[in-house]
Amino acid sequence: MTDFKTTPDQADLAGIERDLSFHPSPVTDPATLTREQVDHFNESGYVRPLTIFNEIEIAGHRAYFDRLLEQALADGGDSYSISTAHLKYGRVYDLLTHPRIVACVKDLLGPEVVGWGSHFFCKMPGDGKRVAWHQDASYWPLTPSKAVTCWLAIDDADTQNACMRFLAGSHHHGHLTWRKSSPEEHNTLDQSVENAEQYGTPVDNVLRAGECSLHTDLLLHGSEANESDRRRCGLTLRYTTPDVRAGMDWNQKGILISGSDSDGHWANPPRPETE
Q1: Bridge partners (DSSP) listed for residue 204
Q2: Rounded Cα–Cα distance for residues 238 and 20 (Å)
Q3: Domain boundaries, given as residue ranges, for the chain
Q4: Topology of domain 20-258, per CATH?
Q5: What is the pTM of this model?
């Protein structure tokens, strides 16, 4: 299986002509979300909180992640190493294609949906790493920028254990100038947008385990270091529409969940046998 980089080389991205502008949700008659929630997504760039799993269900998913994390650490990785997991593990594939999550995503993207990304972001207690303000679309070889991320809380996420933060409305400013992060910033990723607060209103994305948020790929977001004694794990699930083109072979990651892919651009790999 291809080893996809979490943060692709900017030199490679520079060779791809990308439309990095916000594409509002075209959905006028949502089935799961409310009309107000769709409007809020268009205006503010996110929807939260959405209840996906009950306490018993998320406890099962947490126990499963605990086993994956234990194996990743034993293999020499860290708590951020479990990426593109839907191509490796059947149970993560099942989460990416889960009807409750997909129903919410369809109310933002429309009836045709491709699931292409899955990454556990696990901030261990006192790990000292933050995520600087950034835009997802800046990292991705996708055009046009119509991706939506589901951030599913595996653990409770609050201000004490460094929940994600949004800058509401920042997606309307298009692709913003960034600089490469310095080692002193202890940034989990490698891009930082300077004076980001000028572009939107800060919102703490507080979620209980089993809840999720949905945000557009141009929304500025980040998180502080987890200085608490509690872990904060979330599973990011990424979606787009079949008409989006993917460079750098990222179309190999895409699963056609709903609708049709008339050009056959997305590889639509089968569910992995490994659980």
Answers
A1: 165
A2: 17
A3: 20-258
A4: Jelly Rolls (2.60.120)
A5: 0.96
